[in-house]
Design a protein that fits this description.
The complex is a heterodimer of chains A (442) and B (189). Chain A is built from 17 helices and 9 strands. Chain A is α/β, with parallel strands linked by helices and 442 residues long. In chain B, strands 2-1-3-4 form a 4-stranded mixed β-sheet, covered by helices on one side. The radius of gyration of chain B is 17 Å and the shape is elongated. Bound molecules: flavin mononucleotide, iron/sulfur cluster (SF4) and FE2/S2 (inorganic) cluster.
Amino acid sequence: MSKPVTRVLTANWDDQSVFGIDGYIAKGGYEGLRRALSMTPAELIDLVKVSGLRGRGGAGFPTGVKWSFVPQDTGKPTYVVANFDESEPGTFNNREIVEREPHRFLEGMAIAAYAVGSHKAFIYCRGEFLWPGQVLDAAIREAYSKGVFGDSMLGGGHALEVVLHRGAGSYICGEETALLSSLEGYRGQPRLRPPFPAVEGLYESPTVINNVETLATVPSILVNGAEWFAKTGTEKSPGTKIFSVSGKVERPGNYEVPMGTPLRQLLEEHAGGVLGGRRLKAWTPGGSSTPMLTDEHLDVPLDFESVAAAGSLLGTGAIIVIDETDCIVEATRRLVQFYAHESCGKCTPCREGTWWVSRVLSRIELGHGRPEDLPLLDDLGRNILFKAFCALADGAVSPIQSSLKFFRDEYVQHIEERRCPFTGKGPGVHGAAEPEGVVVGA
Amino acid sequence: MGVLSPELLELAEAIKTRYPAGRERSAVMPLLYLVQSVEGSLTREGLREVAGLLGLTTAEVEAVATFYTMLRTRRTGTHVVSVCTNLSCALRGANEVFEVAHGAAGIAHGEETSEDGLITIHEEECLGACDAAPVVQIDFANHDRVDPERMRELVAALVAGEIPAPSRGTAPVDFRHASRILAGAEEPS
Ligand SMILES: Cc1cc2nc3c(=O)[nH]c(=O)nc-3n(C[C@H](O)[C@H](O)[C@H](O)COP(=O)(O)O)c2cc1C
Ligand code: SF4
Ligand code: FES
């Protein structure tokens, strides 16, 4: 048996020549698409199913299964939409894929289009990715000029037009139905599912929406085979994945490792350990929307099942490391501020709830917390979780509930000492009483 | 006279053809960027012009424009300086960088734009570049690992009329130029 692979998506990242299409092709690029075009779409979808590839955008839905849901007899066009909104705090691998080897992603998108019979693909690129968008724009033009896109992909007869669409600063537009609203020219508000986008998505037509990393993983499966892919990682979470590691580590960055690699190994072998050799206090396994874990969870295998069993979610594989010198109340407050800012405003628990929680957390952080604030936060969390329209609100509850679960003492300390034990800010026990009218923090 | 010149009107028509016939409404965001590239922000006239191009009401276009932070219906500086203060950047000192940016640009807290209209400071959410925390964008071009010292230098460069070189890619000349790129109105170099 061959040694399990560790670097596939990032194998060429040190080689600047793969930035352009010639260098990419010289390294075997677009061979996956060539092989895909020699198969029937049904065979191709089966291959991706057998590989076990699961979506990297957060939910881990099996990619081949998603493609197989696209009906072929509607008489409407079918669309492929690549989700390049990458806005989940802590997540930055889609950006680096595009900045280093844009064609790997474009190739995966072309394969997806052929699999589901789509002749028009959109890339929804978050607005702040000004430069990555320019990189894609240039790469798309290259692909047209080389006959990869256009009237007949690689001369195989399948036409594909690719359009780059720029977002304009909105986290919720990464949620697939909000993305579709935005792409259709509306405010980016989520829509009811079902119907799922595969059946009725963009312009009420069948639409496959996939994350950039998911699509960039597909070409290697075509080249090396489904069995090869399934051999790496775990049984239910096969393959490698790029983990984005940031916060208090010596070497923040994107690291591609087999699914199921624990954080301890990621830190030791790749990210250089916790910054300054300090003790790790808390971390997110999959971005700010996934419940925090602690140093007790350093050996949890980072795959969808194991992380869920540990009480969190693999999400986007975005690991934010918080060390012993960082204040959990402040970290949580900052994350909740994010959700309050990004709530699309459609439903009350999310719009009002996140705002209230951020105010209560400010009050505690600034030394004006009250003992009854902790049950109040518990209550607010319960009243938001699963009570709003989309998963943004559930994501907001993750840092609230997990920080209260693991670091309740630290909250209590803030309230009892009437100050932040880390910054020292607050009136303190002998300080002035909370000024009249200052109900919540500044 | 409308906001868009005859040349830009032609470009607007080309932008509409990116989307299927009958679905031109999808072009509302790029067209708003196009108008923003002329006006420096979105005025009433600009919104009306986009509405006219798409057969929408001004209110419909305004509803879209006000949803997105990068489409600006408020007074906006020549340059927009976005400072990410989300968690990974905050853990690496972004709050101080945000403070320093205000001081350096002479912008009082709670204000967005300097009196001379040169700089708008925007508190940004995660920019998808946390490996380079703290991250600052100037007109959406990235500057990696910006400490307070570097922040002062960046603002000083803008005040001196210079465009600091970003960590990757090329920098737009100003916010209008960035909007033009975002409209897809510029060939990549
Ligand atoms: C609030 C919210 C934000 C999301 N943001 C993104 C995003 O930026 N990029 C992404 O690929 N998926 C994002 N998703 C997940 C998408 O809805 C969708 O599941 C994903 O794009 C599907 O691609 P995949 O099957 O390849 O993972 C988000 C979901 C939610 C609830
Ligand atoms: S949960 Fe929040 S983001 Fe989602 S639809 Fe409701 S208000 Fe909008
Ligand atoms: S938190 Fe600042 S770029 Fe991600």
